[in-house]
Amino acid sequence: MEMPLYFKQFFLDNDTTWYHSIARALSSIQGTFGTIPKAHLIGLNSMRIHDLWKMKEDRDYNPPGGPEIGSMIMLDRNLDFPTVLASQLTYEGLIAECFGIKTGVVKFEKNVTSQDAPLTLSLNSTDKVFAEIRGMHITGVFPLLSSKARQLQSGYDKKDNLSSVSDFKQFVSEDLKELKSQHKSLALHIGACEAIMNKKTEGSFEDVLAIEQAMFEDTQYKDSLNFVETCIQRQSPYLNCLRMMSLLSVCKGGIDSKTYKSLRTQFLHSFGFHHMTSFKKFKEAGLINETNDKRNLFPKSRKKFNLIPKSPEAASKGPVPKDLSYVFGGAYTPFLVKIVEQLLTKPYIGGVEEIFKSLQIPATEYKAGTSARQTQSNFKPSQMALKTVLVVFIGGCTHTEINALRFIGNQLRYRFIILTTAIVTGEEFLQSFLV
């Protein structure tokens, strides 16, 4: 929906204007695909938007015919900060972090294309190479592209074995065009991979990942704290310092007052006292907290939903991952996507409320009734509809979460339609608070 400021405007400014925009978007989807018979609402924000939508819907046109979407899962962003703050490790996520993706379009510079003029590329599944690698862990992308390059060369070598004019004509009119298209795509994505690796190795990326994993697991706290302090003292990009401080806070369940004040003082000395307001905003949003902030759900959800794999190696980083946590290299399972997986695979006797009661997360389940326009027979979802789920992120999501949803969609044979207020990186998410 391209509303990158939604989270800040609602959670900090208490501006509910965008509620109506989201409700209208849901009405538009339902007008196209038919009444959505069931909804799981996870978070207070989601419940309020759903109530407004249903209130407006009573006055709006009620679409006839059977539904094409079997259910909807609506999730609040503030239930899961670690996923949006952590370094993305899927190819598409790293493209977003290193080059920026706006409305599905990326601009590649000379370091990727080897051309002086920048190239604007639309990232979608019509590009067969991108469709195959977009959700892969970055460690598996380059070997796959190398393999495809060898296959491509074999395709070109076919011309040496052609003997008749008709064979040459077919090769030139059909095969050669496809080979040139793949050649161009491969060259771009190999160039992008090289640029990503060059950029990440410059910034001690492996050290960052090791510290992030320790934060997820709530181990080696002193090492994590020392790393954050070193980033501040070396004047690393200030958004990256804020990102690491926020991740440390939400994974730990808050920072003790003495450490919080020390980090704040060091940061202000390094980057300027105009950032006093930044700390105020981050504290209000629940990103950088002092100990015992009840809004911080991660320490409890980490245990209840088994978000930290017992064996990170079990999550394959190759072309065929085995576990949802592969998107973070086996270090962590994105919480909101884990909720989606659980709702689709585990029927809960007490309803959705029981799952989240111990975490004090507002949640409910809504089932639509039939109207005078809709008989029981045409309201009943088809088998295809039952396997089609609308997932709504209130407050934004990352490309990594979208990649993770594609993974469980393939695993469980579900088709996901994703609606989000914005697709963001960690730094873009934090930057929205500073506007």
TrEMBL record:
InterPro entries for the chain: Sec-1-like_dom3a (IPR043127), Sec1-like (IPR001619), Sec1-like_dom2 (IPR027482), Sec1-like_sf (IPR036045), VPS33_dom3b (IPR043155)
A Pfam cross-reference name: Sec1
Family recorded in the similarity comment: Belongs to the STXBP/unc-18/SEC1 family.
Record-given protein name: Vacuolar protein sorting-associated protein 33B
Signal peptide: none
Source organism of this protein record: Clytia hemisphaerica
PANTHER family: VESICLE PROTEIN SORTING-ASSOCIATED (PTHR11679)
SUPFAM superfamilies the UniProt entry points to: Sec1/munc18-like (SM) proteins
A biological process from GO: vesicle-mediated transport
Highest taxon listed in the record's lineage: Eukaryota
